[in-house]
Amino acid sequence: MANFWDTYFYMWHRLDWGTVMRWGWYIFLLDIPRFFIVEGVALLYSRTKRNRTKGAWKSARQALLQENPLVTVLVPGHNEGKHLYKLIQSMKKQTYKNIELIVVDDGSTDNTAIIARSFERTGDIRRFISAEERGGKASAANLGLRYSKGKYIVHLDADSSLEADAVEKILIPFYRYKNVGAVGGNLVVRNREQSLTTTMQYLEYLQSINVARIVLSQLRIYKIISGAFGAFPKHVLDRVGGWDIGPGLDGDITVKIRKIDYRIVFEEEAVCKTHVPATWKALTKQRLRWSRSLIRFRIRKHRDIWMPNKNFRFSNFFAFFENIFFGLVLDALWIFYMIKILVVDPYFLVVWFPFKYSIYLLLAFGQFFYSLAISKNRYQVWSKIIYVPLYPIYMGYYMRIVRTIAYIDELLFFDSYKDTWNPQKTSAKAREHDM
Amino acid sequence: MTDTVIEIHGKKVLLLEHAIEHDVLPDPCSTDIWVINHSDEWLVRRFLRRIVRSKNIKIYLKPVFLQKEFKKFYATKDNHLKYLSDGYIKGLDIIEKIPLIEQISFFVSKYADKRNYENFTENDFFIQKTFDYYYTRKKRITPVLKHKSLTGYSYPRIETYFYNNREAFINSRMLLQEAFTNNWLTRHYVDTSHLCHKCSSGFLNYREICPKCSHHNLKASNLIHHFRCAYVGVEKDFIFKDKMVCPKCSSELRNLGVDYDRPGKIFNCKNKKCQHEFQDAPVGVHCVDCETEQAPHELVVRKIYEYEITAQGMKIGLHL
């Protein structure tokens, strides 16, 4: 053991910073500034601002409770009958009471329809709409929207469960700020104890959803409202025509709302506990799908965001730029340097791996302490600290490889149009019309 | 005026015409068989009912035949005349019926004088009469479909004992039920019917109703899913002049299955105060006879049986 540390420190001692900068400049120029410095500053700024404007938040809450608008909780799903009981329980516990729950069944092949119909009869579900023919998530959501009566629509996945004040909290930003077109809720991994896969995702969600979205929202470049939990004014959804064909429809609709000049806000206090894939295989499948939609929507469908025409908005451009740059470009760079080292100086890898790992581990701890700082349930976060050393490998290698495969896949083979997540009839049309 | 009597195969056959017209029963002892020789359905039925309702064993057991030649005049759907008689013969050809005729006359001659109906209740008498008839005919008591019957099924001969529709329905079922519980009859399942829980009528109107206001003027419309833009709505959302145009993306819907499909149905309540939209329409049942509104689960479920005389029942028939 002592020998290991000796070698390790010897490495640091012998390190030639010139070589390091040549191979890894992006770590110091891009990753650390973005994920540590910018994030830290923005987080601090947003925290203090929120503290200072407590009064305004309070009166926004008052305004909401005074108006007490009808809120539609819209839950589209395919074979989700088994989750309905828990969903209804979590609806009943809501502090906000003027809710209509609409469940849309997208061609389920199990007994979802029977379960949901019986809840409709007891009144636990205000309206259950069933499409016997499967049409994809977007069509189910739109069908629900067609029959929604609420002033605001809260979009929810059937397997997510809300904190008791989540609906109230996600509505407050509409009264706090002007011109809000959508509010994204905060997601916490519910099944974090199930497997290593889910624990790692718990850490990831803390960082990439909780912390990162506060920052993105602060910088006004927040661009994905998770399908799991988001709120929209109905007239805004009607104006953009509801959801378009996915996968990635949640990111897509957020962009559509941004395009018509609405502000998108993240509300960290509106907490939704969501169920994440428990095996690496399922997680990989999910992330391939998510990452493909980056190419499909950011580069293809919404390519007009990049064009400097009369509809050009700098914030939208920057949101896309940040997304593409830190997703696609950095991945390409990472692979390029990886291969270059292998070819030019493979012996350097012996130093390079431990060095890079050390740097990213520090970064991971830094981010972990950010999450800890803003967390309400510090004990729960703290108990996962022993998993932080795995985080650089999880994010730096696993996620990066999955992402890169997805990008190449989508760029060359348009694989998102073959995803069985959508029925083929709609994917064919989406491809035909370049959606 | 009296009716013609002819002799065929040594049997005296009475051709009934005047008796039917004047609604009088001829003397049962003077002839062996009665043949209906009249074309007026209503009069024939009146006459046959008289026979069935008769208290004289010689009359109600008398072999009575209809003639095929007149069948076209008895043009009703129910063909009920057949069930009140011993069926049709053609060209007065009775040779096949002779064993039956002899059997009946043997039975009548053996039991007619022994019968003492004085201490019989009306119900006992009806049972006796029924058993006499079905025993001599070697037939089962079969329900027949009849649209005038309260429940759609009828036991024509037994129901004829009674004078109004409702009484006939209730009493005939009670009579059969009693005979069955006494083990004089066995039964075989024929059908199941649903009846009004208030008046036992089977003449019911079923229609989908609004789950909110129970109104039954509903409009069903198809949901349409436009594949290209994922818009889903009812048909009327898409109607634009004489075309179907998507309200979200303004493109025309041309081919079912390629551009769009119909994933489901939605009902619209046409009650102006309600206008509820829903998918799962419960069925409401309206009784045409007593106008009671009820849910399908409230209906009375009745099984329809065919009955057969048991060995024990035969003892009653033979009056042992």
TrEMBL record, chain A:
Ranges annotated as spanning the membrane: 23-45, 317-337, 357-374
Listed CDD domains: CESA_like
Keyword Amino-acid biosynthesis: no
SUPFAM superfamilies: Nucleotide-diphospho-sugar transferases
Glycosyltransferase 2-like domain mapped to chain residues: 72-237
Protein name: Glycosyltransferase family 2 protein
Protein family (similarity comment): Belongs to the glycosyltransferase 2 family.
Source species taxonomy: Bacteria, Pseudomonadati, Bacteroidota, Flavobacteriia, Flavobacteriales
GO molecular function, one term: glycosyltransferase activity
Organism whose genome encodes this protein: Paenimyroides baculatum
PANTHER family: POLY-BETA-1,6-N-ACETYL-D-GLUCOSAMINE SYNTHASE
UniProtKB/TrEMBL annotation, chain B:
Cross-referenced InterPro entries: TackOD1
Record-linked Pfam families: TackOD1
Domain Thaumarchaeal output, chain residue ranges per copy: 129-309
Protein name: Thaumarchaeal output domain-containing protein
Organism the protein comes from: Paenimyroides baculatum
Taxonomic path: Bacteria, Pseudomonadati, Bacteroidota, Flavobacteriia, Flavobacteriales
